[in-house]
Amino acid sequence: MASRRVVVVGAGITGLVAARELGRDGSLEVICLEASDRIGGQVHTVPAEGALVDVGAEAIHLGAPHIAALADELGLTQSVLGATPGSSVLATRKGLRPLPAGVGPTGPTKIWPVLKSGILSPAGLVRAGLEPLMARKRFTEDLGVGDFTARRFGREVTDTFVDPLLGNLHGGDVHQLSLQATAAQLVPTAANGRSMLLKTLKRPATTPAAPKPGKAPLPMFASWPTGLGTFTEALAAQSKATIRTKAPVEALERIGQQWRVVLADGEAIDADHVLLTTPGPVSSGLLREHCPAAAALYDQVPLVSVATVLLGWRREDVADNPTLRDANGILLPSNRARTFKAATNLTRKWPHLETPLHLLRASVGRDGNTLADDLTDEQLAARVAAEIGELTGLLAAPVFSAVHRWPHSMPQLRPGHKARVAAARQALQELGGISIAGSAVDGLGISSTVKSGQQAAREILTTAKDTQAS
Ligand SMILES: Cc1cc2nc3c(=O)[nH]c(=O)nc-3n(C[C@H](O)[C@H](O)[C@H](O)COP(=O)(O)OP(=O)(O)OC[C@H]3O[C@@H](n4cnc5c(N)ncnc54)[C@H](O)[C@@H]3O)c2cc1C
Predict the structure, then answer these.
(1) Is residue 67 part of a domain?
(2) How far is it, in rounded angstroms, from Cα 76 to Cα 224?
(3) C-alpha span between 442 and 181 (Å, rounded)
(4) What is the mean pLDDT of residues 318-340?
(5) How far apart are CA 394 and CA 208, in angstroms?
(6) Predicted confidence (pLDDT) per residue in 385-410, tens digit
(7) Main-chain phi, psi angles of 124, to 5 degrees
(8) Does the pLDDT of residue 1 top 60, yes or no?
C-alpha cells in the first residue's frame, strides 16, 4: 500500500464527518463503506406532497459551536433556515398548555414561567420549591437522569417536563438514561450539591451574544430548504474519501499488523485502521471474535424502535384550529401518551415547507413499548390522526399519510455507560487498529455524533502520524 489506508464503516453522520476529517490533509487513503443504497443513516430527507421532508432527524442544533463551525466550513450558513418563532404545547392535566419559557430537556432553568403556567399541581410546586434543600445530597456516581431530577425537583416535574423532552429525544425512559451520558451538563451540579433554582434566581438576565460583524445571527435549531439531507450531501461532496454505498461489511480479519475488511459479496479491503460507526449490533458482531470486551459494550445498549408518521390535512380544514395554527409542536408525557409521544407541526414550524397540504409529523415508539414494531402503517396513521383530533379539537380527517420506520434505532445509554465506553476503548487500544464511534457510543443527536466522528478522526490521525514518525 502506498499510503496508510483507513476504512470507515457506516456513512451516517458519524462516518461521513470522520471520513471527511481523515481525508482532509491527503496523507491517508480513506474509504467509507455504507451498507444501504444511500448515505446519511438516520438523516433521511424524502419527497412528500411537493416538499422535501425529513423523516429521520429533523433539526440541527446550530447553537452548538462545533456544529455552527462545521456548517460554516461546508458553506451552508447562508442558506440555513430557522424554525418559525413559537413554542410547542404540552399535554397536561388541564389540556394543552404552552411549554413555559426556560424549560429544557432536563427540567426548568427558570422558575417563574413554570410557576405562572399553572401546569404543576400545588403539591408539585411546593415539592419543586424544596430543590435548594434537596440539593445537599451529592451524587458522584452515575444515575438515571429522571432519578436525579425527581430527587431534586420531585416526581411531578420529572414526569411533566423531563419525560416528554429528554425522554422523547431518546425514545427512552428518563429513569434509565445515564446522567453522565445524556445530560452531562448536570453532572457538576449533581456532584457539587448546589441548588439549580437558587442559581437561576441569582443569575443576571443574559442578552444573546452579538453576531460577528458582517454575519447574520444563526438560528439555534435549523434546517435547509432541501432538508437536513443538504448537510450529509455536503459532507460527502466535500470529502476526499471514497464513499461507497451498497457495501455492507460482514467481517473483520486480522492480517499481520493490518485488518482485512470483508464485504458481504466477498470483496476484501486491507486497512491500517478501521473505524466502526455502525449501529450497536453490527459493531458488536464485527468485534466479538477479536475484542469481546469492546463487543460487550454494545450488549448493554438496548435499542428502541421508532416510527415517523406524516399526516396531511387540507389547509382550509385546519386554518381555524388554534393548535395547528399557532404551535410548533405537541409534546406528551408518557403518562398521557397513547400512541404518539410528540409531533412537529411541520407546516407552521418550517416556513420552507410550502406544501398544498398542512403537514404534521408525529413520532411513535418509546422504551417500554413496541408500538412502532407492532402496528401496521394504517393503524399508526389512524391512531395518530384520532389522537391529534382529541387533543386539538380538530374534526377533519387527514387526506394524506405516510409512515417511515426506524427499527431498533435509538440507543438507550444506561447509567455506567461512560465507564463501559472507556473500558471498551482501552481494550481496543490494546488490540490496535480499530476505533469505535457513533450514537451507541458517544450519544445520539447530530451534535453528539458530529463530535464523536471528529474526535475519532483526530485520534486516528494522531496515531497515523506517530506511526509514521517512529
Ligand atoms: C426519527 C428520528 C428523529 C431524530 N431527530 C433528531 C433531530 O431532530 N435532531 C438531532 O440532532 N438528532 C435526531 N435524531 C438522532 C440522530 O439522527 C442520530 O443520533 C444520528 O443521525 C446517528 O448517526 P450515526 O452516524 O451514529 O448512526 P446512523 O445514522 O445509524 O449511521 C450508521 C450507518 O451505518 C450503516 N450500516 C449499518 N450496518 C452496516 C454494515 N454492516 N456495513 C456498512 N454500513 C453499515 C447504516 O446503514 C447507517 O447508514 C433522530 C433520530 C431518529 C431515528
Answers:
(1) no
(2) 8
(3) 7
(4) 96
(5) 38
(6) 999 999 999 999 999 999 999 999 99
(7) -65, -40
(8) no
Q: How far apart are CA 148 and CA 126, in angstroms?
A: 18
Identify whether 60 is part of a domain: no
Asked if 311 and 345 count as a contact pair (C-beta separation under 8 A), the reply is no
Helices vs strands, H then E, count in the chain: 22, 22
Classify residue 394 as left (phi > 0), alpha (psi -120 to 50) or beta. Answer: beta
CA–CA dist 9, 30 (Å, integer): 11
316-331 residues labelled b (16+ CB within 10 A) or e (exposed): ebbeebebbeebbbbb
Q: Is the pLDDT of residue 217 over 60?
A: yes
**Do 371 and 397 have their domain in common?**
yes
What size, in residues, is the chain? 470
The residue range of the domain holding 281 is: 4-43+228-301+413-469
Tell me which DSSP letter residue 56 carries.
Answer: S
Task: Find residue 405's DSSP bridge partners.
Answer: 307
Digit-coded pLDDT (tens) for 235-271: 999 999 999 999 999 999 999 999 999 999 999 999 9
Name the grid cell of 301: 445498549
Classify residue 453: in a domain, yes or no: yes
Where is the domain boundary, 411, 431, 456? 411
CA distance 373 to 171: 14
3-state helix, strand, coil in the chain (%, to 5): 40, 25, 35
Mutation test of ligand 1: which of 42, 244, 448 has the most ligand atoms closer than 8 Å to its C-beta?
A: 42
Do 157 and 238 share a domain, yes or no?
no
Q: What is the DSSP letter of 87?
A: -
Separation between Cα atoms, residue 368 and residue 302, nearest integer Å: 11
How far apart are alpha carbons 465 and 48 in whole angstroms?
47
- Ligand 1 nearest atom to the CA of residue 446, by list position: 11
Residues flanking ligand 1, CB < 6 Å: 9-15, 33-36, 41-43, 56-59, 248-249, 277-279, 282, 306, 308, 406, 409, 438-439, 444-447, 449
CA distance 164 to 279: 25
- SS3 track for 318-338: HCCCHHHHHCCEEECCCCCCC
Grid coordinates given for 67: 456544529
Residue 409, C-beta contacts closer than 8 angstroms, at least 6 positions apart: 42, 279, 303, 304, 305, 306
